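Q: Here's a chain of 137 amino acids. Please give me its 3D structure as C-alpha cells.
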Amino acid sequence: MNKVAHPVFAKRIKQVMTENGWNMADLAKQVMLSHTAVQNWSKGKTVASGERLKRLAAVSRKPEHWFFMDEDGDAENVVLTTSARRELDEKEEALLSLFNQLPEAEKLRLILHTKTVLHEIDLLKSDVFDIIHNQQK
C-alpha cells in the first residue's frame, strides 16, 4: 500500500515548483535542505514544520498555512495560525535579492552571524536595563 500521507502538502510543493520553474534540486537549494527532504515532501511522505516551513513559506512567498489548504479551503489536519501576508518594503526586497544571490554556504554563514548579532543585542539591552534599574535604587 503506497498511500500518500500528506496529499495536499505534496500537491502544494509541486505547485510551488511549477510556478517558480524549479525542480526538486532548485527548491532544496532555496530552502537549504537535501534533495531527499524535498523529494519526500513532493511524494507526501513528510511535511515541513518549524524553521523548514518558515523557509519554504519565505522562498515561495506563500503563507505557511497555504501548504496545508486544499483549493476549496479545507485544512489537512492542522491548526492554522492566521497570519496576514504583508508586502515587503524596499529595504526588505533589496536584502532578499542580495541574499538570494549568495552561495549557499555564505547564506548559512550570514544567518548564523545575524542570529549571533541579535543575541548580543538582546544581552546588551538586558545590561542597559540592569544599569538603569540599579541607578534608580
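Q: Can you summarize the key feature?
A: The two ends are 70 Å apart (CA to CA).
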